[in-house]
Write a structure and sequence with these properties.
single chain, alpha/beta, Rossmann fold, 3 domains, four-stranded parallel sheet, 7 helices
């Protein structure tokens, strides 16, 4: 199962939040939008324009662009789109975007001055989403490996997380005779990027997902814009390079040296998984036993 999220942070509450000063407002609404295009001119000549063309010309059908800025992408959209919706919450940028839209946008185009989290559209309303930054692929075991709060914090990016084979709501096979290996999981990730037509993507992997992310970057560097690894082993599969850390031996013993639970007994499984989580949480964020404070935590912290 795949989850696709166009994430923006929640707006800060007015109460107790520092408000922008007059100089900041003038820059954001007047100076910034005026200087935006000239500031990017050199970068456009040195390859950014070609990068825009490569991304935008693949868009088809009903298209949503998040954070359209002053509309530098408009010249690259196909004329035959079924509709183009451009979002830009910053008033000064949106004003210049609207002017450019009247001159060079495809037919059936419109500008919305709203942030992404306030868009009035249901899932599946668009065939393609264009974001200001490269999309993000989050590789774990299941979608639950990546909290919703983290996805929401990835401001303005198109975020994809998914379930690996035999996990979450994906297809299951006989656990005693799996018909795939790690390389197949890497191929799954690569083909998912191609199926969603995402192009070069920021890839993050946690745990086993880190193995997949590393091999994806090695096998398909054309698909990976950047690589972020969390709680994983470097250079999988194979021996660890001497200048890279392996998993802590004592932690691996605590995780895998314990007797296996009775998988038919729910309480036994819960105790086993809780013990694993307690080991993985470290000394500063442990999972407490019933009636006991977390190790390394001040019970009064956060009050």
């Amino acid at each position: 199962m795949t989850d696709q999220i166009s994430a923006q942070p929640e707006p800060a509450a007015a109460t107790g939040t520092a408000q922008p000063g007059r100089l900041t407002k003038v820059w954001g609404t007047r100076c910034g939008p005026i200087l935006y295009d000239p500031f990017l001119r050199l970068a456009e000549r040195r390859g950014m324009a070609e990068l825009r063309r490569g991304i935008v010309t693949r868009a088809y059908g009903r298209v949503l662009e998040l954070g359209a800025g002053t509309g530098l992408n408009l010249q690259y959209y196909r004329a035959g789109l079924d509709g183009l919706t451009l979002t830009e919450p910053e008033p000064g940028m949106a004003k210049r975007l609207e002017r450019r839209t009247t001159r060079s946008a495809p037919p059936n185009s419109r500008v919305l001055r709203v942030p992404a989290e306030q868009l009035p559209f249901a899932d599946g309303s668009f065939d393609a989403v264009v974001a200001a930054d490269p999309p993000v692929l989050l590789v774990g075991v299941t979608m639950l490996s990546w909290p919703d709060e983290l996805c929401a914090a990835l401001a303005g990016r198109y975020v994809v997380r998914y379930d690996l084979r035999d996990a979450g709501q994906s297809t299951f096979v006989d656990p005693d005779a799996p018909a795939y290996d790690l390389r197949d999981l890497v191929t799954d990730a690569s083909e998912l990027l191609m199926a969603l037509d995402l192009g070069r993507t920021h890839v993050a992997g946690v745990g086993v997902g880190g193995f997949i992310a590393q091999l994806l970057a090695l096998d398909r560097p054309d698909q990976v814009a950047s690589l972020t690894l969390v709680s994983t082993r470097p250079v999988a599969p194979g021996p660890v390079d001497p200048d890279l850390p392996d998993h802590a031996a004592e932690m691996m013993e605590q995780l895998f040296g314990r007797p296996a639970p009775d998988w038919t007994d729910r309480d036994s499984v819960v105790d086993y998984m809780t013990g694993s989580a307690r080991v993985m949480s470290g000394s500063s964020a442990g999972i407490p036993r019933a009636g006991m404070p977390s190790p390394g935590l001040d019970p009064s912290a956060g009050r």
